[in-house]
Amino acid sequence: MPADAKLLLGGRWCASLDAAGAFRAEDPTRAEPIGPAFPISGAADLEAALAAASSVAVELAATPPARIADFLERYATAIEEETDTLVALAAEETALPAEPRLRSVELPRTSGQLRQAARAVRDYAWTEPVIDTATGLRAHRAPLVKPVLVFGPNNFPFAFNAIAGSDFASAIAARNPVIAKAHPSHPATSRRLAELAHKALHDAGLPAASVQMLYHFDNALGVALAGDARLGAIGFTGSRAGGLALKVAADVAGVPMYAELSSVNPVFLLPGALAERAESLAQEFFASCTMGSGQFCTNPGIVVVAQGEAGDTFVATATKQFASATPRPLFSRGVQENLARAVRDLVDAGAGVLAGGSKGDGQGYRFEPTLLHVDAATFLAHREALQAEAFGPVSLLVSGGDETTMVAIAEAFEGNLTATLYRAADGSDDALWQAVAPPLRKRVGRLIANRMPTGVAVSPAMNHGGPYPATGHPGFTAVGMPTAIHRFAALHSYDNVPDALLPPELRDRNPGPVQRRIDGRWTDADVGVSR
Amino acid sequence: MPADAKLLLGGRWCASLDAAGAFRAEDPTRAEPIGPAFPISGAADLEAALAAASSVAVELAATPPARIADFLERYATAIEEETDTLVALAAEETALPAEPRLRSVELPRTSGQLRQAARAVRDYAWTEPVIDTATGLRAHRAPLVKPVLVFGPNNFPFAFNAIAGSDFASAIAARNPVIAKAHPSHPATSRRLAELAHKALHDAGLPAASVQMLYHFDNALGVALAGDARLGAIGFTGSRAGGLALKVAADVAGVPMYAELSSVNPVFLLPGALAERAESLAQEFFASCTMGSGQFCTNPGIVVVAQGEAGDTFVATATKQFASATPRPLFSRGVQENLARAVRDLVDAGAGVLAGGSKGDGQGYRFEPTLLHVDAATFLAHREALQAEAFGPVSLLVSGGDETTMVAIAEAFEGNLTATLYRAADGSDDALWQAVAPPLRKRVGRLIANRMPTGVAVSPAMNHGGPYPATGHPGFTAVGMPTAIHRFAALHSYDNVPDALLPPELRDRNPGPVQRRIDGRWTDADVGVSR
Questions:
Q1: B284-327: per-residue pLDDT in tens?
Q2: Per the CB < 8 Å rule, is B495 touching A451?
Q3: Do A307 and A406 lie in a common domain?
Q4: Helices B83-94 and B187-204, interaxial angle, to 10°?
Q5: Which residue among A141, A318, B81, B334 has the highest number of C-beta atoms inside a 10 angstrom radius?
Q6: B255 and B284 share one domain
Q7: pLDDT confidence bin for B530, thresholds 50/70/90
Q8: In B, which residues are within 8 Å of A252 by CB distance?
Q9: What are the Basic and acidic residues biased-composition ranges (chains A, B) (predicted)?
Q10: In angstroms, what CA-CA distances link A268 with A26, A261, A376, A456, B291?
Q11: Minimal Cα distance from B448: which residue of A?
Q12: Is the ipTM of this complex over 0.90?
């Protein structure tokens, strides 16, 4: 099969230099190939992308922030104007609902994220200028002046797309060139986005090779690329096995890799909350677990249910919901097969099936919404196997028990993106909260009360991150502006450098109103103005 | 040789559980053993330390900040009160000058650093609270709730000591237990510091195992410990080979390691600066290169000299200074041997000897202040070998050439802690600065004008860090409060959590005057107060 589609390489659309093959997207609802053939890149494409990105890194780093922001805003507008086409492409390639998910939630989130990044560029918020007049030292966050490689996941064709999502926006905001590795499950969506990015880049006057995109390449080539010291950093969202293989290579080369790996996002239902509203909690949980066919990194994969009558009601209600649900399509045969294997492994480790558990008999790549359960003792005895992620509409209920057991369960989790506790409005769960929350707190990036973990707001106070192995570093978030930009920045200190030779945001005269920490106080005044 | 000295383990002074041997410090001026025998720890000591630290991590993380600050301040005061003893011990073990270096510079810097850490704890500056009222999300930096392992270097018996330096102060400020691995070249100094820390810990009422210290252990045991996922992070200052071996193990376990490795700190002398004051620059350079026998991570290891008459004057003056200098003691036989090998390697790679070059005939571990030179073409042809660090009073002069050559030299450097440019006061070098500074800027943590790189101020705008391989991550500094504390912190987001269940600095009511970013604006107001 010859590859019809072109790559965005070195600032122009061109045929693959050394395609190792070609692939097509699939319609997951029918398991049928759709759209054109896209190239699987060989080593020459990767080298060309890296060389081209490296060659513009200095120029991009020296580009005035206003022009970077202009690009991000033009791109956001282009995405919004192209909503119909993008939603149609993504719906076909991913089988995600066009409405509300793609059109009303994910697409506006994506353009909004680009605009938030643009704002952080315009007001220099991500650079966090620090001025110490006593020592003559001034510091800020600055571009890496090296390319950033972004691997996009299968589950967000817009908001985490390697060419449009948070990693992309963050790396560009920090004025680094991006080499985007699109996810092969939605190549046509990615191509359309890349076309919009390319045009916006041209219109904003940024270096042409600042944004490049490849569709697919062999894992071994990816590992070799990740270990190339010409890279400034890597953003990765995807499977744990794939991410860790890349991370080993990146670590050896000294390339910081921000990997968002697996997470089961434990949810604890405390007894008071269950007593107040067991049935509505079951509905909330079912909706969160099965939305988007459960293909979220923040899917509630494990729910610890306080024992008692209300807990039984919760389990019964949830079981009924899962049992009567229609299997919705998954992204691909790979997701379906991994999910079937993961459910089998959970059952082998001691979980019982309350509802679902198999592929069902629908067309395409589907899996029944599946509810599993296990008692606390079994969970604690087989904690490793029973907290393996099952990516899809699957959740494991764990029977809670007394406070000691709840705490032991909390302590059994490895690093996760989120943990959630549902507590009673009357405060009756708060003593238990004080016991269970601390062991969860240290294991997760975001601690949630009375909300399901799905739904990741693009907020400066978001942490879409967490301790290893949820991500590769506990100090960074993949979502939220300006914080997500920090991943793709270096700390630069200037020592005794004359005002005229400093970057604008470190000069005596405030170039904005930029908030800067001068002698320990945040202010938007000029240096030397009494505060 | 039985080990007389005790370890600080699990909150008390005790004999090694499984000493694999013992060692004594040496007087570097005589190459003679001094002081008592200290244990070389076996695996049981390391396991005991890790278990004890892990067991208090939760309690320490929950300790009120005021008590943490109280410990840091008590410890700082104790160090100051013990100045005479500490300076005498350190002078004997390291042969560093008691005055001014140890007594008037390094010791006050060490206690001052502890006090700055205490201040950042009291005013919550290191936690950087962010509050987003629109989404109900609040975030801050928080303890890792896991032990931090600190490896101290040989070259700062106080200010980078594993039990008293910046890594120690930073990790404790973030409320993490510390396992200090003292450097075996100054064990008695480290022991006295640990005694003071232990008493301050007791007086402040912190968990006893919050601070522990081992003197020495086999490299293989260190690598095994670095790869233990029970660790929260590692702070390391030392050799590149040792650091990278630990980093490989830490990376696989997902343990962030902040390694400060080698650096040659290139200095560029631009023609206008040389024309203004070639002789005084030579004196400044000589003093910086030979101070403390050149045993600084920020030693000016390579100096690029613009060609011309003034450059010749600089070279001649510097050569004269180096040639007439007395060899001062180094820390150890290992430093002396590594230095001799490094100089040999530089000569083998094409460098010529202008002055010094051998051990000389003095007593103890000495090396002649050594000045090497090489032309630009040779440097560029053998850039790897010629930028290897020679730890000691050794520097390589590189003949500059035209702007293109200067830029090519700048582009030949790998990641470093610092780069320095000397420019003319009349601005005549500034066009050249604009060409040479950008390639240096992206390669270093701190860019300096008209100051030698030695002398690292403890300032919030300091960056004692830099791109790999100067350190393991370009976004963090090892020196400077509150920024150095960020290395040992996790990002914690709270989502919809009721006010009473939030940490103090994230509640509506400001607990200090704490500076917080509320809805995008830094303020010390309460939430809900119009700003």
A1: 999 999 999 999 999 999 999 999 999 999 999 999 999 999 99
A2: yes
A3: yes
A4: 150
A5: A318
A6: no
A7: low
A8: 248, 251
A9: 505-524
A10: 38, 22, 13, 19, 60
A11: A495
A12: yes
